[in-house]
Description:
Helices cover 67% and strands 0% of the residues. By secondary structure, the chain is mainly α. It has a domain at 361-409 and 423-430. α1 (2-40) packs parallel to α24 (485-506), α3 (85-95) packs across α4 and α11 (229-245) packs antiparallel against α12 (250-283).
Amino acid sequence: xxxxxxxxxxxxxxxxxxxxxxxxxxxxxxxxxxxxxxxxxxxxxxxxxxxxxxxxxxxxxxxxxxxxxxxxxxxxxxxxxxxxxxxxxxxxxxxxxxxxxxxxxxxxxxxxxxxxxxxxxxxxxxxxxxxxxxxxxxxxxxxxxxxxxxxxxxxxxxxxxxxxxxxxxxxxxxxxxxxxxxxxxxxxxxxxxxxxxxxxxxxxxxxxxxxxxxxxxxxxxxxxxxxxxxxxxxxxxxxxxxxxxxxxxxxxxxxxxxxxxxxxxxxxxxxxxxxxxxxxxxxxxxxxxxxxxxxxxxxxxxxxxxxxxxxxxxxxxxxxxxxxxxxxxxxxxxxxxxxxxxxxxxxxxxxxxxxxxxxxxxxxxxxxxxxxxxxxxxxxxxxxxxxxxxxxxxxxxxxxxxxxxxxxxxxxxxxxxxxxxxxxxxxxxxxxxxxxxxxxxxxxxxxxxxxxxxxxxxxxxxxxxxxxxxxxxxxxxxxxxxxxxxxxxxxxxxxxxxxxxxxxxxxxxxxxxx
Length: 514
């Protein structure tokens, strides 16, 4: 038995390292493909290299003249590779928020680019030029963030699925996901994935403070990061339900709801603060504009106005015949999202349609991080009422002992993962994709998929949904279904390979992709 334990203890770290190596391999592959396509095909639009002077004369680090750069050709090659939204991020890092439409791009990625370019990569400025160093900094940040995001996804998947094989497959699928080109370009997807996966991992691990910090950072990388507040709302609702119906403490339920509301608000703070910053700069006369229409609104929300006014984003506004090719481009990812949600609903219809409120006490205790009060919260129950009887105290202590024992068994199972048939014997509750821990992730995916299909530019769904863990969990189980698993595996990998090739070809040469 000790030999089996020692083998199991080394298995998870080895797979974690394998995920890290796979992430590196995927980034190297993307780099090779980008260089290959750029050398083979002329870009559709060559305006990306244009670099007009900043509007403000207070720019603290202007770009050196081309004549003073030691290796101008390398610098030009880096600058020419920056296309699509990368041009906006680079311009913001160089000049700040000059134009109204630039406020559609949240600040943490440009801030990181600027900091790295002025510290670690500062010696390269005389060699390739400041703008090229900014671009190089962005590429470095994105690719490194992607490596750690993949590892965080693996660790999160192990805890959620209790199946190291499925967790490993899901993480490898993420390393070679269909939106891979955006995780190696000057986009904020990699930082968002890192903060999102990291925050969810710490939330599941019981470190709420770190979870709030990381998920708040995800909301400063991409606007959909504010949806991560939904996990705290889900947790608060279920813990309040537990406090009322199992502890009989209404006051404690109120306390839990207030705590959940504060945690959720913290995730919104970076996004809200940025909207206030935009209002101050644009509406209060600090930018060369007339009073903009959104400034006069009762709730002057800059981001919604920008998406609607400049990009035509709105409910059903993209449902036009000419957009049919874009709907076809998004069909694979939307289909995978739909099938993953429907399959979970088929596996656990009662908890899916009841939002998790109709499940057994045993399963709730198994997934206590979302569904029941934690040990520290339960310890407050004894202090909550001065008239608590000795019997109630003894029951509370018994609950604590059972919770601690369950926690120790669960921790040991992570260190020493068991085969699925042994897991099902020792853990009568359902694990894998049918676990009740998957429910909040599926609900989150459902909301995002509906938004992508009904509101957004639908072709963006490929990268918009690429950071949703249930897609990879569901796909990893499809690949091992007896009889049809191999065919599903071929189909999934063919889809990923096709979009990686297509994306690296079109996107890197400034052709429309997603």
